[in-house]
Amino acid sequence: MVGETYVMQDLSDDTGMKLTLAQIEEKKGAARRAAALQYRVLS
Q: Domain total for the chain?
């Protein structure tokens, strides 16, 4: 675990936004782009 001294208080996690974008891309038929986005988030 990273100590508190390394955590920025104003940092926001954009994981959910990236996964939502991947879902949108998949619905548009861009399966490769969706898979790449998901891979980067989940790996």
A: 1
